[in-house]
Amino acid sequence: MKKESILFLFLGVFWGLMGVVYWFWSRDVTGAVMLAGSVFLGLIPGLYLYYWYRRSGYHLRAEDRPDASIEEGAGVIDAFPDNSIWPMIFAIGCMFGVLALVFGTWLAIPAIAFGLSAMIGFTAESRRGGNI
Amino acid sequence: MSSLPPSSDSLSAEQALPATKNKSKKLLLVLLAPLALAGCQVPSFGGYKGVTKTANSTFHLWQGFNLAAIVVGGITLAVMAWAIFAYRAKKGDGSIPKQTQYHIPLEVTYTVIPILVVVGLFVATVVVENQVVADPTPSATINVTAFQWGWKFTYPGTKAVVVGQTTASPIMVMPVNQDVRINLVSSDVIHGFYIPEFNFSRFAQPGMVNTFTFHANKTGLYSAQCSQLCGLYHSLMYFRVDVVSPSQYQAWISSKNASTSARTAIAANGAIVIQDNPGIPVIPSHSNGAQ
Amino acid sequence: MTDVIDRPVNLDSDDQGPVNPDHGHDHGHDHHGPSGLVKWMTSTDHKVIGISYTVTSLTMMIIGGAFAEIIRAQLVSPTSTLVSFAQYNELFTMHGSVMIYLFVGPFAFAGLANYLVPLQIGAPDMAFPRLNLLSYWLYLSGSLVMLSGFLTSGGAANFGWVGYAPLSNVTASPGSGADLWIVALMLTGFSAIFSGVNLVATIFYLRAPGMTLFRMPIFTWNMLITGILILLAFPILTGGLVMLYCDRHFGTHIFTVSGGGVPLLWQHIFWFWGHPEVYILALPMFGMVTEVFAVFSKKPIFGYRGMVFATISIGALSLGVWAHHMFTTGAVLLPFFSAMSLLIAVPTGIKMFNWIGTMWGGKVTYSTSMLMAMGFLFTFLVGGITGIYLASPPIDFFTHDTYFVVAHFHSVVMALVLGAMSAIFLWFPKMSGIMLNERLGKFQFWFLFIGTQVFTFPMYLVGLKGMPRRMAVYPNNPSWQSLNQWASVGALLIGISMVFFIVNALYSFKKRVPAGDNPWDAQTLEWYTSSPPPAHNFVSLPPIHSERPTWDYNHPDHLSLGHGDKEKAKAGS
Q1: Hey, which of A102, B232, C105, C232 has its CA 20 to 30 A from A58?
Q2: Check: CATH 1.10.600.10 for C40-572?
Q3: SS3 assignment for C359-396
């Protein structure tokens, strides 16, 4: 996790420096605000990753160590969902949702119907699977 | 320019460079000296030589970039071609080449050299750029308003107004050898004020006046047009720039001042009423003049 | 329902090569799930989604290409009436939008990336498989919404793919085509964000043991940086689109002067997304050709670490160059953006030399994939150099919005298309288990490569003569005609090359020449498993001691040599 967090932190700090130079040179609010936001995009994941790296007691995972053997990773990786219809249903709901913005609010009815059923479906599916 | 006899090259090139006290101009001369001295033998690479002072500098910068590109691109291309052709695997040769992965000095070299090249290009850019955006005290000012799909040129302090739409191609009259300030604005969407032979374009934007200066050094009628997509008739949003001698310019301004009805007359003559579906509008015969 | 996936075990003995697909049955992870349409709709397998993405985006390329052919046909004559002005504006808007938003992007960061990233790092799937599937469906519905603009009475969006305010406001561009364009980009924007999250999370959390960051294939590295750039850039575009929509329908005045708004703000927002977007499109293709050069030169990637750092610096610098699209607004800090734009050429140049270095001293095989990659190299050199011109404001002043700029980015994007084709020829056997026909592929290459040059070079020249982009007619300038005709010939050649591609795909599926697990003697982990890979990808994994585990497994006597490794080489051989 260490190198991953350093990558994000480096990007955040770099954009911060660039933003400072840009602000004092140009006094352009738009760009400076967007660069400031970008700093957070670098720092928040970077600090999050570093936090977990620290909480694990600076533990290097098998995928972080060059000398790790494949056997070290033996065991369960994680649970992965099987086929699911709900992402498609949810996307159809989203499509009706944006079409409602163009052609009129009545399209929000199918949007909400598809969206809600997809959310219920997602939840039920996850519960039945039990391992997520 | 390539028609000049070789013997006169260095002399004519030196004469062609206008004497100036401008510091940045001197720096430019130093930077582009080899180029400027080579003068007319450097090809134009398809660019316009330019009919304003800054257009000429921009043209020299363009030549310089092209020379740099030919050198850098040529070397890269040669190395590339060598790598592609010299190391072609022969049929049936299943052997495995040496698995070289790193060569630190080589990698450092091809990091440092590009950095030096771009630093050089940047310095040359800044010098020319400062000339292009310089804002000297002008001898004449023209307010340009772009609209869908035409141009309006007004001359503050005078009654001169030129308005025209699409292929009517209104003419912006300006004096030669004088600093002319343009105040550019749009009354609706963004348009592009683009004069190819001035090597210059600038957005005409609503709610924001853009100011810049031309110093034309050659009289003539130059074609120009809107370069930024502005709706249906973007392709026909022409105008022309007529660079005339200062005396002719004064005469033109006075004639406009004298005639109180100038404004309506020109507006009526210049404008073409656009139908909903005009097909291809008739092109006035004079609009090919500057080609 | 979920599957609990175990880590595949190491094959400890030498007698077992890469695993055959039957092995999967013993392991109990094989799926007898749905097939056909239902599989396409419901499968959360990254390989299925990756193929769906690839096929859909290539379909978009054909659609966008058809628009381009009509545009080029219109420009054959200065006063052509093939299409009306209004139709022409719709065509180039949708050509740009389809190509950028619906083809190159999704192909690059969601198609092949979805398929390859988990395979290259030894993962069973993407980190969030259902989010991945949602991402695909949002992309497909967004594509349909955008294209449906043609069915509305006012026609599709017609303000250019950049949608500059105030031309994109409701006064200048009324009609639901424009609204459909805006909301479609919201859908595809979220789709891209989900892909980005998925890529970064997968690469951070699902690597196989020993697959450290600096052992990931360059393609995966590039996808990591691309994922980060997506997370950064796309929310800004989506935010801008919401503002644009509010301006159009809710009476806000964010981009309209009359209510105190600033039209220029749209350009800042758009290009703050738009320039990282250029690298979001380019980095994946860079990664693809990197793998191709290594495979067909039988060598490791030259300067692997330099390549990684070049990618990171491109990602870092790409946020500081947005306003080089805005030099002619007269309202941006010219030297800053000029300097940053020139500087970003340096890491790109390093990549170029590393590609050449990879071929240097190798055994270069002229397969179709490699030819496409070589075509990429040349075309990208042209596009890159003209890009440096445009980083210089004085030069940009007279080329901005002319065909010079159009030619520049078509050089770049056609290079990316060559890179994409190169990748398809390399990885098609892995994805399908069968080979593409090399002979038809070479025909396709020559048409595509020559077509690209015939297409772009006249556009550079006509741009320098002063032809602005997005012109339906050019009646005042008949002298531009012959150059435009040459460009149209080039576009036609490119179109023909795509016919070869489609014929090749159909022919190969009929002929079914089996590929085997590793037809190219390739180097990275995806070539260790079967073609196509079993469900959850790996039944076993080789030991991972470098960034090319499959090569090390197959050629234990030919490991990569570092800078000071000459002695070791002699000792080893």
Answers
A1: C232
A2: no
A3: HCCCCECCCHHHHHHHHHHHHHHHHHHHHHHHCCHHHH
